[in-house]
Amino acid sequence: MTKHFNRELEKLKKLILSLxxxxxxxxxxxxxxxxxxxxxxARKIIIDDHRIDxxxxxxxxxxxxxxxxxxxxxxxxxxxxxxxKINNDLERIGDEAVNIAERVESLAKRKSSSxxxxxxxxxxxxxxxxxxxxxxxxxLDIDLAFKVITMDDEVDNIQSEVYQLTKQALRKHSDEExxxxxxxxxxxxxxxxxxxxxxxxxxxxxxxxGEIVRHxxx
Length: 218
What we know:
Blueprint: H1 2-36, H2 39-70, H3 74-107, H4 120-139, H5 142-172, H6 177-209
């Protein structure tokens, strides 16, 4: 019984890490699509999103099966609860990558504009936060998880900067309203990816220490 239960937990861990790798790939491609304004890469992200959706459903079903069959307690229960929540965050990260891809498809139709925002710094921070949160999960590294949480404010500040720049650009170039709003929304989707990475880091802390650190409770 215990041996079988441990195998089920190990299977869950492998599944959630595989989903994490898929989500990382989607985010990496979305950032490349932004940099190159490449509609073909964007289209591939949208088409491939079903892989993340299907795996998210499979993992949730596996978690519910383990809960029903083994009725785990203490650290094992915390692990499964954390997997369920991280599973949801990874699926949402895939959705944000698709949202970015849809914006890039729209931006790619316009050959020139008076205002372009350079997302490199923001994209790198969001991508790093996702990688670090997954590394924290793999290694149960609580210090790394806390570091991810502290990085969230940096991404929020950049997003506020994009908002202010977009407002200024809209005043000068009202004829480019749709284009400028799409640019702003890309920053919003990157900021949401950072938020989900933060959620994952918080779940890692919950998994290790059994303490809920959401809502700045740390």
